[in-house]
C-alpha cells in the first residue's frame, strides 16, 4: 500500500487551535470605552480583521477586492460584440452574393442586386427580409446560416448559461430538445405556483436536462435564482446599449426566438422569473467602457457578475439597519473571490457567534449588550495594562491573577464551611480523602475539604468619583476615565475582595454606576459638574461601612459648577456661584471628619480647577495629581495601592 502527501488546500487548517475570542473582546473594549456601542465596536472589529490573525482578512479587505473586480469588469467589458459580429456576417453574405451576381448579365441578377441595395440599414430588419431570400451564392447562403446559428447560440446562451457549446453544431434534434426542455420547465414552474411541485419532479427534470445547467442547482429555488439573475442581466444588457443598438439587438433576438419556435416559451419563462424575483435590477443600465467587444452570452455573464458584485459590496459594507454577517452570500463570495475568502468570512462569523456563545455578548430586544463576564474581562485587561506601565522596581506592584485571601495565613487549617473565601489546603484535603477511602481510589466528599486559616485583614470602603460631563468627551479623556474605573474595580475584586467599592458618576447630578453599566456608558450632554451631589452619595457609602478604612478618589476636568438644592433639583451656574463652592467644600469638610482622605486627579490645567483642588487639599489633607489621560489609570491604581500599604 502506498501513501501520498500534499499540502492541504480545501479550507482552513483543521488542526489549527480555535481563535481566542478574548483578544477580539479586548479590541472591542477600546472602542466601547471610547463611547461606541457594542454593536458598532463589533462591526468595526470585523471590518478591520481579527487581532492576532494576520492571515485572516476583514470585511474591508474583502470589500476592496470586490470593488477592484468591479472596476476591472467595467473597464474590460463592451456589450455590442454580438451585434458587430452579426453586422459583419451580414455584410460578408451580401458581398458574396453580389460577387456571384456581378458577372451575370440577366435581368434576374439586376433585380436581385436592386433588392440587396434596398435592404434597410437596421441589421434586424435586413436579416428578416433576407430570411426568405433565395441565395444564388452557396458561400453567401452558408455565411447567412452561420449568422443565424450565431444568433441562435448567443440568444439561448444569454438565457441559459452554457447553451452555446451545446448548440455549436446545428442539429434539429438538439433544438427540439431545447424546446421540450423549456416546455417542461414552464410546466414545472406552473405546478409550483399551484403548490403541486415536489423535489422528485425536479430530480426527474435534472436527470433529463441536467447537462444544460452547468451550475448544478439542487432544487427549483436554486434553478429559479440562477435563471432569474441571468435573465435580469440580459435585460440590463439591452438597457445599457444606445437606443439604436438596443432596437437592432432586440429585433435580432425576437426573430431568432420566432424562427426557433421558442418565442412563446421564452415569454412564459420571463414572466415567471420576474414574478418570483422582482427585486433584481431588471432594466437598470450598467456603465462599461471596454475596448474589446464581447459576445452576447459573455456580456450577459459579465453583467450578471457585476450585479452580484454590487449586491456583495452592499452586504460587505454592513451599513444598513439590522446588518449581520449572515446577510453575506457565501456562494457569491466564492464566485467573486475564491475559496480563501469564504474561509475568511467564516472566521469572522465564528468570532461573532463565539462572543455570544461564550457569554461575552447578549442580545436584548434586538440590541447587542456586554454581559457582566465581558465587563470583568475589560476590567482585567485594563488592570493588566496599568500594571504593565508601572515601574515594578520603583513601585513594587505586579499583576496577580489569583484571587486575594481575606488575610495573612496563620499556618493552621480548619474544615471548609459554606461561604468561606479562604484558599483550599489541597494536601490536607486529599489526605482526608485517602484516609476515608481506606486505600480505595480517592474520591473527595464535602467533609474532606479544609481551608487555610487567616488573620483578619483591614478592609477599605472605596469611592471613585468620575466626571461624566461633556467636556470629558471634548478633551478626549472619557475613555481613560472609564478604563481607570474598570481597572480599579478589577483590582479590588481580585486582590482586595473584602473591600467595598462604589463608582459614582457625576455631571448635572450624581448616580451610582454598576460595572456592567459603566462599560457602555456615554457622557452626559448636559451642563454641570455636580461634585457636591457625588460627595453626598460617597458619604452615605462610607457611613454604611464605619469600620472600613475610607478611600475617596476624584477624577475630574473642571471645578464644581452645579449643586443639589433642597428639593432634589440640580442647579447649574457659570461661573461657579459661591453657593455651589460653599456647599461642595462643606461636603469636603464632612469627609475630613470621617477621616477620609480625598485625592483628586486633574485632567485639565485650568486655573479655576487648580484653585479649587488646592483648597480641597488644604482642608482635607489629600493629594492632587495632574495626570495625563494616558497615565490616569497608572496614577489612580498606584495611589490606591499606596494607601492600602500604609494601612
TrEMBL record:
Biased composition (Basic and acidic residues): 392-402
UniProt superkingdom: Bacteria
Residue span, VWFA domain: 459-642
Chain spans, region Disordered: 392-417
InterPro entries for this protein: VWF_A (IPR002035), vWFA_dom_sf (IPR036465)
Protein name: VWFA domain-containing protein
Organism, scientific name: Microbispora catharanthi
